Amino acid sequence: LVSRRTQSEDTVISFGSSIIGGGRQQIIAGPCAVESYEQTAAAAKEVKKYGLSFLRGGAYKPRTSPYDFQGLGLEGLKILRRAADESGLKAVSEVVSVKDLETASEYLDIIQIGARNMQNFDLLKEAGRMKKPVLLKRGLSATIEEFIYSAEYIISQGNSQIILCERGIRTYERATRNTLDITAVPILKKETHLPVLVDVTHSTGRKDLLVPAAKAAIAIGADGVMAEVHPDPASALSDSAQQMDFSEFEEFMSELTASGLLK
Ligand code: PEP
Ligand code: MN
User: Fold this and answer.
1) pLDDT at 48
2) Which of 86, 128, 150, 249 is most exposed, with minimal Cβ within 10 Å?
């Protein structure tokens, strides 16, 4: 059902006046994790400043170590919702468990399924029964075919509002956090009718590569990019080294705008 063979036109997902897909690129930005109302609201205002429409922020964080900050959970979703509403933004956040899906969806405009859960088939099927768009990230070691099958799990339950997100894959290369598989974008666009985003933060893990990676993503046909921005990255409870501060975000936005690539 996600195949181009069953639907030749691009899927376009509408959020009132903002859309994902359909030839305009969106930038989804915000902190790695929701840490407090003040931190999230500050990031939201910054995101709004550039005329963007989507605020990200993790409330359920899938951390590698169980001793690391796990996110604020439901409280985090409430904060994200409030901050997004106050700045007139749409809210995007990851859900890691079937049990939280329904409640979380009440607070979100886009339900994110993260790389570590790309093959959590129960979660995919339940997300397929939700009435909200799902942003599905590519698994750490997933092939493009496996990624497409995961999207198929969602659509097979009735939810066709799916956004794919390339976020880098694990290879032997250590110069970047993951290896951004840039050609996954045109392949996914060719094989499926779904919008495709690139997460430049988690794929590179390097702030000096965010601008070139975002330019490459858009030039190669992505429907947008995701990037992390935090009011004070040094104090961030997760991904402290890779989140942009506000002046870096300003630079990021101005370089992308100046590139003339954004439509
Ligand atoms: C995230 O976007 O917050 C995240 C954890 O990314 P990924 O699932 O791609 O690692
Ligand atoms: Mn992160």
Assistant:
1) 98
2) 86
Q: Is the pLDDT of residue 7 over 90?
A: yes
Q: State pLDDT tens for residues 60-92.
A: 999 999 999 999 999 999 999 999 999 999 999
pLDDT of residue 23: 87
Domain assignment present for residue 4? The answer is no
What are the pLDDT digits (tens) for 166-199?
Answer: 999 999 999 999 999 999 999 999 999 999 999 9
Counting ligand 1 atoms within 8 A of each CB, the residue from 56, 199, 242 with the most, and so the one to mutate, is 199
In a domain, residue 24? The reply is yes
How many whole angstroms from 104 Cα to the centroid of ligand 2? 19
Residue 46 lies in a domain: yes
Nearest CA to ligand 1 atom 10: 115
Range of the domain at 225: 13-259
Closest Cα to atom 6, ligand 1: which residue? 114
- When the pLDDT of each residue in the chain is averaged and rounded to a whole number, the result is 97
CATH number of the domain bearing residue 18: 3.20.20.70
Q: Is 172 exposed, middle or buried (0-12, 13-18, 19+ CB in 10 A)?
A: exposed
* Global pTM value: 0.98
Candidates 167, 200, 240: which one to mutate for ligand 1, based on the most atoms within 8 Å of Cβ?
167
